[in-house]
């Protein structure tokens, strides 16, 4: 009788990994069938795994979600969601914004599944260099190419909220808001987030 070699402690479970496609070969159907319970994004056959959020990250996210939801619900403009909910940006890309608003027509078009695009997205930047690059560079490009009208970059490390509005195929700064200021929206008249209160939510 030949015994199989016992795996070494700390070694990946290769047999489990082989049940899934390799990077670059994932289809949209494979991605949407995942049930991991954590945030996973998809781009051109590859999966991306943003870092697990901290309590401070989630406190800020929750504060912004409640603020934006109150504005949208009062005016019956649509719905506001938090990650993880996949947002389709193109035929081969899904992102899961931290907070996002979808207008009523987009909600109806999605029919309870996943929206195609969004009207406003917010990302709370984590501290790692790769996460900062993803939110400040890659997602800025991705959201612009998908035609998302407004993108909020909420940066706790720099204590700044950058609000970007879409002009053509690229974003332009609507405003860069710091201590003592209220970050305002170009898309939603009268909507704003007091910057000091945003950071205070994480204390």
The count of strands amounts to: 12
Order of helices and strands: HHEEHEEEEHEHEEEEEH
Report the mean per-residue pLDDT as an integer: 86
Classify the fold: give the CATH topology: tt1808, chain A
How do the strands line up in the largest sheet? 3-6-7-8-9-10
Q: How much helical structure, as a percent, in the residues?
A: 25-40%
Count up the helices.
Answer: 6
Outline type? globular
Low-confidence regions: none
Q: How many domain units?
A: 1
Major sheet description = 6 strands, mixed
What CATH architecture label applies?
Alpha-Beta Complex
Termini Cα gap: 61 Å
CATH class: Alpha Beta
Structural class: alpha+beta
CATH superfamily: tt1808, chain A
Strand-helix topology:
Blueprint: H1 14-17, H2 28-32, E1 41-43, E2 46-48, H3 55-75, E3 78-82, E4 87-90, E5 93-95, E6 99-103, H4 104-110, E7 120-124, H5 129-145, E8 150-155, E9 160-167, E10 170-177, E11 182-184, E12 192-194, H6 195-200
Parallel strand pairs: 7-8
Antiparallel strand pairs: 1-2, 1-5, 3-6, 4-5, 6-7, 8-9, 9-10, 11-12
Features:
12 strands; 30% helix; tt1808, chain A; 203 residues; globular; alpha+beta; 6-stranded mixed beta sheet; 4-stranded antiparallel beta sheet
Describe the structure.
- By secondary structure, this protein is an alpha+beta fold.
- It has one domain: tt1808, chain A.
- It has helices at 14-17, 28-32, 55-75, 104-110, 129-145, 195-200, and strands at 41-43, 46-48, 78-82, 87-90, 93-95, 99-103, 120-124, 150-155, 160-167, 170-177, 182-184, 192-194.
- The strands form three sheets. Strands 3-6-7-8-9-10 form a six-stranded mixed beta sheet, sandwiched between helices. Strands 2-1-5-4 form a four-stranded antiparallel beta sheet, covered by helices on one side. Strands 11-12 form a two-stranded antiparallel sheet.
- The longest helix is centred in the N-terminal third of the chain and has 21 residues, at 55-75.
- It is globular.
- The relative contact order is 0.12.
